[in-house]
């Protein structure tokens, strides 16, 4: 088992900005670092769920069942578009008003948003069904080896999200009132919408 090679590949995969990164950035700007960390923890928890699911064979069943896999893909796409549009069409408000309005609109806790984002992302599912098996021994390896690779991927992803959260958290809640902060949030929303549309339009193999 090539754990070092896998760790290097996983580090590259988690460093590439995706829906989870954009969501953590949004939390950092709108709610602060603590909620960004909770969102990252939600993504980490969902990754651990996929680790357990891959060990018992659930992920392989989901991928093999096209209707289930496509349902996850469509739900994920709709969720990303919903989050993105809520940022694109938001009105510039004071920090307090913006926080209250956003909480009423999204309703999910930061942790739940992280869980939902990761569970509805089929690309994460494919990491556990397509990428990780390539680094296991030819005989499939042991449960411990599969779990080790899965936890490694989840831990590196969590660390990357924490780093993104800390970096964008420097702008803080006050940055929402500035034009720059407003533009960043709207661009973040547009990026989420693009991710959602691309996910919905991807051809199924």
Shape: globular
Approximate helicity band? over 70%
Report the β-strand fraction as a percent range.
Answer: under 5%
Count of individual helical segments: 10
Order of helices and strands: HHHHHHHHHH
Total beta-strand segments: 0
For the sheet with most strands, the description reads:
none
Oligomer: single chain
What's the Cα radius of gyration? Answer: 18 Å
* N-C termini distance: 28 Å
Low-confidence stretches: 93-106
Supply the helix-strand structural class: mainly alpha
- How much is the average pLDDT? 76
Describe the fold and architecture.
Residues 93-106 have low confidence and may be disordered. This protein has 205 residues and is an all-alpha fold. It has helices at residues 3-15, 19-30, 33-56, 58-64, 66-88, 95-106, 110-119, 122-131, 143-169, 179-201. The radius of gyration is 18 Å and the shape is globular. It has ten helices and no strands. Helix 1 (3-15) runs parallel beside helix 9 and helix 3 packs parallel to helix 7.
């Amino acid at each position: 088992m090539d754990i070092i090679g896998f760790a290097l590949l996983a580090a590259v995969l988690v460093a590439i900005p995706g829906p989870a990164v954009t969501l953590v950035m949004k939390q950092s700007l709108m709610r602060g670092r603590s909620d960004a960390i909770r969102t990252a923890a939600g993504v980490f928890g969902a990754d651990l769920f996929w680790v357990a699911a891959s060990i018992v064979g659930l992920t392989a069943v989901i991928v093999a069942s096209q209707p289930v896999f496509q349902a996850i893909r469509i739900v994920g796409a709709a969720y990303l578009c919903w989050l993105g549009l809520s940022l694109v069409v938001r009105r510039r408000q004071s920090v307090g008003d913006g926080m209250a309005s956003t909480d009423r609109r999204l309703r999910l806790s930061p942790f739940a948003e992280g869980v939902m984002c990761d569970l509805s992302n089929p690309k994460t599912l494919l990491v556990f069904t397509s990428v990780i098996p390539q680094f296991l021994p030819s005989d499939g390896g042991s449960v411990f080896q599969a779990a080790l690779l899965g936890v490694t991927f989840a831990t590196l992803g969590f660390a990357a999200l924490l780093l993104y959260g800390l970096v964008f958290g420097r702008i803080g809640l006050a940055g929402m009132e500035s034009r720059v902060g407003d533009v960043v949030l709207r661009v973040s929303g547009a990026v989420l919408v693009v991710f959602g549309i691309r996910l919905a339009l991807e051809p199924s193999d």
